[in-house]
Hints:
Layout: H1 12-63, H2 65-72, E1 87-88, H3 99-109, E2 113-114, E3 119-125, E4 134-143, E5 161-168, E6 171-181, E7 194-197, E8 200-201, E9 217-226, E10 238-247, H4 249-257, E11 272-278, E12 287-288, E13 312-317, E14 327-330, H5 341-349, E15 360-367, E16 370-377, H6 381-433, H7 453-503, H8 510-525, H9 531-536, E17 543-546, H10 547-557, E18 566-568, E19 576-579, H11 581-598, E20 605-611, E21 615-623, H12 655-665, E22 669-675, E23 678-686
Helix pairs in contact: 1-2, 1-6, 5-6, 7-8, 11-12
Amino acid sequence: MKISFPNLAQYRLRILFRGAFLLLAVATVALALYVLQQEKQLSYKNYQTSFSKTSDQIMATLRHPAGQLALLNPRAENGGADALHPVLLPFPSLDFDDQNKVRQAITMSGCLVQYGDDGALCVAVGNNPWAGGFIYAAGSFVSDELVPHQRGEQDIGDAHRLRVTVTLRGQTYRWIAPFEKNGDPNAVQTRGAHGRLTGFLDDDSGRVGARPVKDFRGWIWQSTLCSKPGQGAADCPRSSFFSLRLPVGVLQDALFQEKNPVWPPADLDKIQVRIEVLPPGDGPLLFDSKSAGAARAFSVGDLASLLLPGESLRIRKRGAADGADLVSLAGAEDHPDDSSRLLSRLVRRLPVDEVGPPNESRESVVTSTGIYDVTLTGDERSVNRSLGVVAARVSWFVGAMLLALFVAWLIIEIGIIRRITLLTRRAAKVSKIVKGSGGLDQFDLTDLRGADELGVLASCLHDLLRRVKEDLEREEIRAEQEKEMWHAVGHEIMSPLQSLMALHGAAESQSSRYINRMQQAVRVLYGSASPSEAFQSTVLQVTAIDIGAFLGNVADNAPLVGIADVSFSGGQQGVMVRADDYSLEDVVTHVLRNADRCREAGSVISIDLKTTETAATIAIHNYGPNIADELIDKIFEYGVSDQLDAGANGSRGQGLFVAKTYMAKMGGTITAQNVADGVVFSLGLQRV
Length: 688
């Protein structure tokens, strides 16, 4: 089934205009989606690269001695206002007698807790229980030149000294360790001060007993360089480094009382150690490990800062009895999820290339106390959440662009397209329903007039319709006058025709036949608005006539009407056809006049009659030029003639129109056909 759209052309510009705005809106949304899709693809690739770098960074940190220290002490939080807790070192013990070895060990292990410019301190135990169950303390502080304590003197208030407090399992150990200079105390010191820290039990009396604590060991070394450049050598503060080994009886007893001692102690993170450095006399402390300015040492929890949102880090000691995670960290959300569910769902559905399962990295860290399995799991959904936030921000710009497009379309639609539509609709209505000047009164374009282009067009159309209305009014007046003229002409012609009919009314007279035809023609035209309407409204009296006798009579009388050399070849007599006698004679006469005007000089117009069982065909052939191809289908229309000066010669293009009209009313047909030597008109009639 074929569907046609006859009025689609008049909507073409509107469809094009609205389609252009729709295309702009779709292109805006498509561009935003394409940018988000490319951003998602790039973000996924960047995330995979970042995940690999994060994994490498975490493993490098954990394999460093400081990282191993954090693995060995996952719950240690050294630093702050509370007393320090010992940490488990990745070494069996500290060689506390050697300054360089101690410095290197505590620096590489990362156990030092910094106290700003005042100093640093590391409190730890070795990973070998058979080293004696000692607690090691090593660090530094800044002071003036160290004042030594004279050996054998019980009063230690005039010397630099360290006070050490250890609290565990309900017991407290306190030692006081004054600085005792090596060699001759009265000798001139050319290098930095170096000596022993001899430990005594502390009773807050400022005096010590004669016997020091047997297993307490300590050393101190003071640098020769000033801590603060620009000061004189006499009052220059210098950094002093000390190293202690603290004998804790509770730990030592536990080691030797059990066959399989547990090391490090399960309550290692509950042991509290405090180190204080006292100056000579009663001045303020030079160093206090309980100071609030301490900076916490590195711990496994610090690795959380390396994790992105959605990532998780699990550390498990291989072979642990409980099999639980030693450390479990997750990346914190760095921004609130302010994206809508619709945008988040849209971002998740955007396709990306080569996206596999969530990234996962499994590595192992080998330490002196065991093997730790480290599992880092990535979550690419964090990329979607981040893009969701970006999409929420982009959506405002996309919405603003779509709103701008809609406002622009609305302005043009109301200001231009609506007016064009009204002009088109009213113009189409004018062309369809206006039949006279009265129909133009309902079309008013004054509401569309204005100073712009469409207003000027509306003004022109308004003026044009006004002029058309005036022309139609003049045409109606002229047509009414012409109709009255026809009435007058018909009335004046009918009177003399009636007189001629009285004089030549005999039936055998040929004049009577032509007078009757003239009366019929006047009756046809009388009272009609136009000749074409008159001929079309004529009612014919169709009867049965002998077509052979009729054509012979027409051929014989043709010279009487000015058409010479008309030949009828004859035909079968008694062929009866359905026709109106006078109208058929008018048809044949009009065709003969047309043939006479177009034939070659001296040629004959031939009339032939051909019959079948149901029809009779009259062929009128004239010798001369053919009818032009562009006119052969139009010559039977009213007012069409092949003569440029037809009107001047009295030919108005009316004869063939009358012939076709009368033939149709008699149930016949008439056609024209070009032949090699002229033109043939064929008239078809129904037989009775």
